[in-house]
Amino acid sequence: MSEMKKKILLADDDPDQIFQVSHHLKKWGYDVVAVESREEAERYLQSECPDLAILDLMMEEEDSGFILAYRIKQCEPQVPVIIATAVTAERGISFDISTPENKAWIKADHYLEKGFRMEELEIIIKGLLK
Amino acid sequence: MVVDDEPGIRSGVKRILSGHSVSFPFMDDDYGFELGEASSGEEALEMIKANPPDILLLDNKLPGITGMEVLEIIRKSHPDILVAMITSYASIEVAARATDDGARDFIPKPFTPAELKASVDLITKQFFLKRITRTMKEEGKKIRYQFLSVLSHELKSPLNALEGYLVMMKDRELGPDMDDYNQVLDRSLQRIEGMRSLIMDLLDFTKIRLERKEDKIERLDLEERAHLAISTIKPLAIQRNISIKYEGQGDLFFEADPIDLDIMMNNLLSNAVKYNRDGGSVELQLSKQGGKMEIAVQDSGYGMNEREVSQLFQEFVRIKNKRTKGIAGSGLGLSIVQKIAELYGGHIRVESEPDKGSIFRVILPVQ
Fold this sequence. Notes:
The structure holds 2 protein chains of 2 kinds.
Chain A: E1 7-11, H1 15-27, E2 31-35, H2 38-47, E3 52-56, H3 64-75, E4 81-85, H4 100-105, E5 110-113, H5 118-128
Parallel strand pairs in A: 1-2, 1-3, 3-4, 4-5
Chain B: E1 2-3, H1 7-17, E2 37-38, H2 41-50, E3 55-59, H3 67-77, E4 82-87, H4 92-100, E5 103-108, H5 113-170, H6 182-209, E6 218-221, H7 222-239, E7 243-249, E8 253-256, H8 258-274, E9 281-289, E10 292-299, H9 306-311, H10 333-343, E11 347-353, E12 357-365
Parallel strand pairs in B: 1-2, 1-3, 3-4, 4-5, 7-9
Antiparallel strand pairs in B: 6-8, 9-10, 10-12, 11-12
Helix pairs in contact in B: 2-3, 5-6, 6-10, 7-8, 8-10
């Protein structure tokens, strides 16, 4: 008997990122809900909750990803959230969630720097959905 | 802090300065004083160690170590403290030595309240200038840093996209048939185009970051430059059935570097076309009136709300909404136009209404 497909919310304002990541997620056997803005993601979250979310940090706002992560954790605290972004330490903001202080306010289970390998993403998702 | 072995001097200084404040036309608040006192150099050094003052009024003739010695020590340990020497025999020799050691002013003893106040005012002014230049330097550093970091972000995104697509092709993610990769190839080419335009804009940007080159200034016929700019943008406009009209009034000669004018007009026109609806219109108007040259570009495009207009001139900011999605741009164009306008002592103004369109006006004083 086949298992129910897990649903992943993918929010990113870069259509190429959406295209590439969705392609791989589907290949790995997940259902994908792709949205291109925080607003769209919030609309989706009003009626449904995904099994996992991959959020771009900078969309309409510099911290759209954090806002979304917070919203998701508010309704379903156990849903794993991955924040993927090209914003790194060069912008003076380092989002290392290994320190307890950052972990306290960044509501994400994993942080990925864009340019990541798809194999890396696959391992992380598998780990978080266990 | 006042350092003097005579209690009368200390209480006198305290009396004169309590309630005294210094104000400057460019400062929001007046500056008042809080006074600490020490009766010897040793005591002063202890107090400075614990809680350094901004300004130190220092008597030279003290019971233990002299004022000059205190000055030498704190110049090394607390170079930010501004020092005025109080001395009963303001000899040229002491004055010269203390100045070498970093004293900012002299207060001859005995002094009148007015003399003390004048000295303190002067030194407070120096204190402020020092503080202001320091914050300005720090902010300048911050802006440069931010520019570079945003830039690296903007350059990295298309590289990530390209890399992702190439890996997909290498791994034959979409199957063995090349036809299935058309979208991947088209998007890759678009991202390359976007990166190219960013690099071109950046080159423009570094050019105008430098000084204006006086030897490149010539008397230009702006009508000629306008037609040149329109012909550059025309191919883009034709694809989307957008008409471009030109209107010029009066004598349109202007002294400038032709490259600067071309960059401004090309940027304004290409924005007017890019952020327009299919079948829309663009109008470039030139006019010279009352010692001012105006270059106005009006479009029938998407327009912007107030919040979007306020973000418009920030470097790398692109107005993101449903309709601007998919429009390529570096987010540098308008900051470039603004910088050039400022270089000529001018400015840029924008009027915009959502769904109606926008008018950008570059206003330049005629030399």
